[in-house]
Amino acid sequence: MSDTIEGFINRITPKEMLLLEKEIYDKSLLAFTFVDEFILHNYPDDLLSDDIVQFDISDYPDANSAGIYLEEWNYDPSPLGKNEFNLSVPILLEDRIKKILEVLEIVVKHPNVNRMAVSINRCSEIEEIKTCDFKTYKKVIMEDCLNDCPPNKLYIINE
Q: Which of 6, 7, 82, 103 could form a disulfide with 118 if both were Cys (CB 3.0 to 4.6 A apart)?
């Protein structure tokens, strides 16, 4: 099973995308990448258009999921060996979700981003769609993740 965080923002310039990726890379251990191939699993067709760009968030560069950060239980790095990544991952789920929200916060604070959608799920399953704004999305996502992680929800976030 694969725990994923994927989404989109309104289209910004390629230069802005590179700068945003770099800013997140400099401030977070999580990997944030814009995706060339547009594949948002189980997103409603009415959300998809030519004026959006897809992104993925994963545990670390070259990972294809966020399974470590979305693990429902407390994180234990010992089975994986002690390396810089394993020791830097927060142990508590709430702290790991805060790290994910920090990445999303960098995105929504970008001056040209006015719309974002993000799904946090297992096996690309979306059981519910929630709409929130830039002021409330962190609280909504945190509550959902603490209740059931990953929550299998799509969050539509508007200015």
A: 7
DSSP letters for 80-147: G---HHHHHS-SSHHHHHHHHHHHHHHHHTSTT--EEEEEEEETT---EEEEEETTTHHHHHHHHHHH
Nearest Cα residue to 155 out of 112, 111, 107? 107
Take residue 78 and report the two structure tokens written for it: 């010992």
Collapsing DSSP states into helix, strand and coil, what is residue 61? coil
- Tell me the pTM: 0.91
- pLDDT by 10s per residue, the chain, length 159: 589 999 999 999 999 999 999 999 999 989 999 998 888 999 999 999 999 999 999 988 888 899 888 987 777 666 555 545 555 778 889 999 999 999 999 999 999 999 999 999 999 999 999 999 999 999 999 999 999 999 999 999 998
Q: Is residue 19 helix, strand or coil?
A: helix
3-state DSSP call for residue 153? strand
Site of tokens 């916060």: 105
